[in-house]
Amino acid sequence: MFKDIGKLFLGNKKALFGLLLLTFFALVGIFAPFLAPYDPKNNRVETVTVLSEERDRSRTISREDLDESTEKRVYSQSVHTTYERITKKLPLKGKPSSEHLLGTTHSGQDIFSQLIWGTRVSLTVGLVTGLFTTLLSLCLALIAGYLGGLVDDIISLFTNVFLVIPSLPLMIVIAAYVSVRGVIPIILILGLTSWPWPTRVLRSQVVSLKNRDFIKVSKSLGEKPAYVVFREILPNMISLVMASFFSSTMAAIIGEATLEFIGLGNVSVVSWGTMLYWAQANGALLAGAWWWFLPPGICIALIGTSFALMNFAIDEISNPKLRKR
Amino acid sequence: MPLATVNTMAEEILRLQGVSKHFPIRSFRRFGEVVHAMDDVSFSLGKAEVLALVGESGSGKTTTASVIAQLYPITSGLIRLADPQAPDGFRSVSGKLSRKALLGYRKRVQMIFQDPFGSLNPTHTIEHILSRPYVIHDKVVYRRGEERRKTALKEQLHQLLRSVGLEPPQQYLDKFPHELSGGQRQRVNIARTFSIEPEIVLADEPTSMLDVSIRMSIMNMMLAFQEQKQVSFLYITHDLAGARYMAQRIVVMYAGMIMEIGTSDEVVQRAVHPYTKLLRSAAPAPEEGLKRNRLITQGDIPSLIHPPAGCRFHPRCPYAMAECSRLIPPLKEVEGGHWIRCYL
Amino acid sequence: MQEFLSENILECQELVAGYELKAGFVRAVDGVSFSLRRGEFLGIAGESGCGKTTLAYAVMRLFRDNAKIRSGKILYSGKDIANASEEEVKNLRWEHISMVFQSAMNALNPVLPIGEQLTDAWLAHKHGDLREAKTRALEVLKLVDIPEDRYNAYPHQLSGGMKQRVMIAMALMLQPEIVIMDEPTTALDVVVQRTIIEKIQELRKELQFSVIFITHDLSLLVEISDQLAIMYAGKIVEYGPASEVFLSPCHPYTQGLMASFPTLSGPIARMGGIEGKPPDLIDPPPGCRFYPRCRNRHSGCDLSAPPLRQVKPGHYAACDGEYHG
Fold it and tell me: How far is the C-alpha of A61 from the C-alpha of B141, rounded, in Å?
C-alpha cells in the first residue's frame, strides 16, 4: 500500500515537481549557515587581522635555593599583539549588486541572506503547524466519527461553529491578545484556528468507513475498538490525511506570513513574513524596491505551489477517475 | 408468538422471541420518530438447519441478521442461544454482555456479508485478514517460541484456503483483496467465517453481487460446509428459487414483519399468504411454461417510519378486508409448522 | 438468419467494438452479427464483461473517449450506423433508436423536474413549441402509469420503480422503432421488476416497437423474449427462439448458465454453475473462448474457434461438440 503510493507519487509529474520544490527549500533551510553569505541580522561585517605578535624575553624575577639540589625561579613574560579591525558598514537600502544579490534593507542587512535564513523559519513553522493541525483534527475526527452519538454531535457542533468564523480575523484577534511574541505562539494560534476544516473532512471519511462491511466484519469477529480504529479505519485514510497535512502546511505558511506581515509575530526573528513586514514598514513598496518584497513573496507562492501540486497528485491517486489512462 | 413453530425440528440452537428493532431518526425536525426496521420477529433456527429469510429490500431481513450478529442492540424482545449449562437449555444474549461473553458468542455466531468487495479491508493482505480470527479467538497452537506459532498458523491458513477451493494456497496469502476476482473474494470471506468453526452462520445475500455463472459454486460450497460441519445457516435472500435450493424452511418477511413461515416446499408450492403468492408470481420460472397467470398489485413498500396500521401488507393486498387495516393479524398455523400472519 | 432479411429493421454484421487501453485494444464485442425484426423482443444474456453493454452502446453510437467501433456494420433502414457521421447518428438517436439505462439515478438529472427532462428531449429533436412537448410528455407518462400530478416532481421524490418507468417514458417520447434496454430492472425488487416488465410487454404490443433487452438474468429473459442471444467473451455463442434455446440449449456455456438458476418448481437437483472466469479480451485465446471452462471440450477446440452453425431452423450455436438437449 505504502509502496504503491510511493510509486504512483514518483510516477506523477505534478507530485514529482512539488516534491522537488519542497526538497529544494528544505535543503536551503537545513544548510542556511553555509549558504548565506552574511549574517541576516547584522548590518556590519567585522574583520580582524593580526598584524604582528611580539613576545618579550622572559626575565627571572626572583631566585631562591630550596636545598642543595633544588632551586625555585619565578619568570615573567608578556605578549604584545597588534591587530586591525575593519568594520564595514553594509550599504543602507542597497540595490542588488554582485556583493548583495538582492540588495540590503533600510538598516543594511543583506536581503539574500535573510531570504535563506527565512526559509528555515517559515518551513519549520509550516511543517510543525501542519503536523499539529493534522494530528489534532485526526484525533477529533476519529473520536467523533467512530463513537458517533452525543460525542459526535458536540464535536461537530464546535467544528461547524469554528468553521463559520473567518479564521484570519480570529487569528489576528488572538495574536493581538497573546502578549508573548514568537514562533511557538504563532504555531499554536495557527493550529487552533485551522483545525475545523480538516476535522470535518476527515470525520466524514471515518463515518463512511465505519459503515463499510469490513468494519462490520471486524466487529462481528470480535476485534477490539482500538484495533478497528487504528488498523482497519486509519490505513484507509492515509491519502486523505496526507492531503490534509499538505493543505494545512500550505495554509500555515501563508498564515504565518500574514500574521508576521501585520506585525503580530516576533519581528526580530528572520522569516519571510517579517521580511515583508520590514519591507512594508520601511516603504519598500512605495519606493519600488522590488528586490526586498518580491523574493519572499515568490518563495511563499512557490512553497504553496509545491504543497498544492502534491495535494492534486494525491487526489488523482486516490480518485482513479482523475487518473489518466 | 407461539413457540410451537419449532416443533418440526429436532434440536433448536437459536431462538428469537418477539424481537423488534427501531432506529431513531437523527433529525431535529423528526425528533422522536423511529424507523420500524423489525417488529415482533420470532423464529427459531435448528441445529444444522438452513433457514432462508426471504424479502424485498426494506423488509428487515438484513437488520434481523445484524441484530443476531450483535452489531447493534435490539429494542425489545429476546434472542436466546442454546447453552447446555443454562437451566432450560437457553441463555439470553440480547442484554448487555461482558466482553468475554460477547467474544464467546461471536465465536459461535458469524456473519457473511453481501458485498465481497466491501467486506475485505483493501489495505490488508489475505494472510493478515485470515489470521485475525485465530489471533482474536486464540486458537493458534503454540508451545515454544514465536516461530513455531507462525508456522502452525500458516499451515492452518493453507488448509483453510484449500477448504474453500483457493488452490494453491500460498499463491493467495500475499495478495491484496483488489487482486482477486469477486468470486475469490467471497471465498476468502467464507474462509474467514469458517476459520473459527462457528455453529451459526448468518449469510446476508452472499451471492447477489457475484456473476451468475459462479453463484452456484458458492452456494454449493456453503451447503457442503453445512453438511460436513453441521453448521446452522440463516440464509438471507430476495430470490425465492435460491431460498428453495438452499433451505429446509423459509421465513418470508415484509416491511419488518414475518408474513409466512414453513418448509421450503410448502412456502414455495403452497403459499398461503397473499404477499408470498405475489412474490412467487413475480419470480421468473420459465420451467412452468411461458404463459403464467400473474398476480399484479400496485404500490410500493410502505414507509417504515409510519407503517400502515393493521397488516403491513394491506395497502397492496388484493384480498384486504376491513379488519386488515385495523388489527395486526396474529401468526396462525395453517398446517403443522406452516404459519401465516393473515386473516385469510 | 437469412430467411428473415426482408422484415429486419436492424442488422448487425461482424461488429467489432471495444476500448483502447494502454495495454491494448479490448475486444469487448468481437465479430457479433444479429438481426432484429419489427416488433421483436430480442434478449441478450451473458455474465458481466461479456460485451453485452458495449454492444448496446455501439448500436446507439454512445461512446466515451476511449471506446470505438473497429469494424463491421450496423444497418438500420439501409443506413450504416457504424460508419455514419455524428450528425446522422444524432438524428437517428432517440427518434428512431432509444435507450433505457441501467441506473435511472445516474441517467436522470437530479435538479430538474421529470416533466422538464421529458420535454427537453422532445424539443431537442422536433420543431414544436413547449405546449406540444408537454402534451406528449403527459401522454407518455400516462403510458407508463405515472399520474399527471407527478409531472413537476424531482427524481428523488420518486421510488426506484417509478424512476425506471420515467426512463422508459423518456425512451418512448419520440416514438422510436427500437428501444434498447440495458439491465433496466436489475437494481429493482422482484415485484417491481415484474410490473415494469409487464408494462414493457404491453406497450410493445400497443406501439409496435422492437426491444433489445440486456440482462444477466437468463431465467427472466427466457420468459419475456422472442429471440435469445447468449453472449460470452465478446461473441454470440448461441442464438435462437427463446423457448427453443431454453428447452434444448446446445452450447455448453448456455447449458452452464441454465444450470446457474435454481428453479421454483420441480425436484431440487444439485446444480453446477460454471467454474473459472472469462478470458482476457485484450489478447483472447485462438480457439473457442469457452474452452478453459468447458465440460465437453475436446482437442481441436483450443485451436480454432467454431463458427455459429445452424442446429435446427433458426437455432444457431457456436460449438462443434456433440449437442446435448
Answer: 91
Set of cell numbers at residue A241: 490525511
Strand order through the sheet with B76-82: B34-46, B12-24, B76-82, B90-92
| Interior angle at CA A231, CA A230 and CA A236, nearest 5 | 90
CA A316, CA B104: separation in Å to the nearest integer? 44
Residue with cell 407518455: C140
**What's C174's DSSP letter?**
T
Q: Do C198 and B241 touch (CB under 8 A)?
A: no
Express each pLDDT in A46-68 by its tens digit.
777 777 777 777 778 888 888 88
CB A304 within 8 A of CB A250: yes
pLDDT tens by residue, B303-331: 888 888 889 999 888 888 888 888 899 99
What are the backbone angles phi and psi of residue B340, rounded to the nearest 5°? -135, 155
Q: Could you report the per-residue pLDDT of C172-226, keeping only the tens digit for each? A: 888 899 999 998 888 788 888 888 898 899 899 888 899 999 999 999 999 999 9
ipTM: 0.85
Select from C193, C223, C264 the Cβ nearest to the Cβ of B268.
C264
- The answer to whether B282 contacts C198, with C-beta atoms less than 8 Å apart, is no
A106 touches A280 (CB < 8 A): no
| Cα–Cα dist B202/A40, whole Å | 71
Q: How far is C20 from chain A (nearest CA, A)?
A: 10
Please indicate if any CB of chain C lies within 8 Å of the CB of A324.
no
pTM attached to this predicted model: 0.83
Nearest-5° Cα angle at A58, A55 to A63: 165
- Integer Cα distance of C117 and C137 in angstroms: 9
pLDDT, tens only, B104-129: 999 999 999 988 888 999 889 999 99
Q: What is the pLDDT of residue B88?
A: 82
CA–CA separation, C249 and C232 (whole Å): 14
- Chains contacting chain B through 3 or more C-beta pairs under 8 A: A, C
Closest among B65, B52, B69 to B261, alpha carbons compared: B52
Q: How far is B122 from chain A (nearest CA, A)?
A: 8
| C88 has a pLDDT exceeding 70 | yes
**Chain B residues within an 8 Å CB radius of A219:** 71
Buried b (16+ CB within 10 A) or exposed e, A39-63: bbeebeeeeeeeeeeeeeeeeeeee
B residues 240-269 closer than 8 Å to A (CB): none
Three-state DSSP class for C136? helix
Chain B residues within 8 A of C194 when measuring between CB atoms: 281-282, 294, 296
Which partners does chain C have (≥3 C-beta pairs < 8 Å)? A, B
A325 interface with C at CB cutoff 8 Å? yes
